Amino acid sequence: MPDLQSNILYLPRLGWYLPIYIDYALLEGRHAVAKHFFLAINLLAVSICAPLALHLTRQFYRSTVIHPSLKLVYVVHFCTYQVFCISSIVCLIYQGQYLIIPKTFPEDLPITIFGAHKIEYQWSQVFFTLVIVIERFVATIRMRKYERSRNISLGVVLCLVQQALGGYLGYLSVTSSLNLFLSFFLLLFLIIPVSLVFVYIYKFNKSQLVRVLSTPFTLSIKYQIIENLYVFKTLNDIVGLSAFCLFSTNILIVASRFIDIGGPYGFWQIIISFLTELIFTTTPVLLIWRLNRNESLRKSVRGKTMARQQEGADHYFKDLQESWK
């Protein structure tokens, strides 16, 4: 079995490994065509997904009516994806040996910065669902005041914490202080409690809605609870897509460490690297598309409801007018 670090780029000046960066310099010459073909597809996918995600993010920001703190969490995450796409392009160019692999400072500075950022972004994805659940948890606790306050301080703090934790775990990953297997267990440790809190808050808001509709609560509290339930329904898409992305890519990365890229199975290393990059690139685009689609459906349902209410009001006043004749 090969060394778990043998396939990935090593930066001797820093003593850093880039865990998601497969060092194609070790690949046999007979796989050169396959390497360039799949790298070209990855570069094309990033080039298409980055502007598409930017357009969808702008659409989401302009059309979605949610609390500013929650909107800030969404927008910061999707804007960070744009930096991830730039990092991916730089890493893929180096990976394909279109630029000479640097060995000394300052030549290795670009690959160090962009490679480390890719890992930081992947860890920040883990905390993306967590910060949304925390934001909704605060909204549930302070439901009598939260929606009336348009303060974004909570969103700013959550975004800073998300990026700081992602950066710290990314640093541990590149310095090999956090190995692959420990990363996988840490991922499970983070996702399971978040999922349990998610289920609890959703059920709590659902029970509260039943109680609120049958008692004289204020309209603002009713709106807050309905808003919480709507956000948690959209979280189903976030949790599902994020879980698929994180677990599938982690399994692929672990599997890639057991394949000797310079041996007879080097082709499968290319396929694994291609799929890992493709999943990371396309998942955020699917996510923002689903959020926009959910918002469009929500507005459509709301518009039809208002149209029916308007039609009922028109019939009422028409009948009232007829009765006075």
UniProtKB/TrEMBL annotation:
A GO BP entry: sensory perception of chemical stimulus
UniProt KW Transport keyword: no
Topology within the bilayer: Multi-pass membrane protein
Cellular-component GO terms for this entry: membrane
Pfam families cross-referenced by the UniProt entry: Sre
Transmembrane segments: 37-57, 78-101, 151-174, 180-202, 238-259, 265-289
Main subcellular location: membrane
Keyword Transmembrane helix: yes
Top-level division of the source organism's lineage: Eukaryota
InterPro entries: 7TM_GPCR_serpentine_rcpt_Sre
Keywords: Membrane, Transmembrane, Transmembrane helix
Localization (cell): Membrane
Family in the record: Belongs to the nematode receptor-like protein sre family.
Name of the featured protein: Uncharacterized protein
Origin organism lineage: Eukaryota, Metazoa, Ecdysozoa, Nematoda, Chromadorea
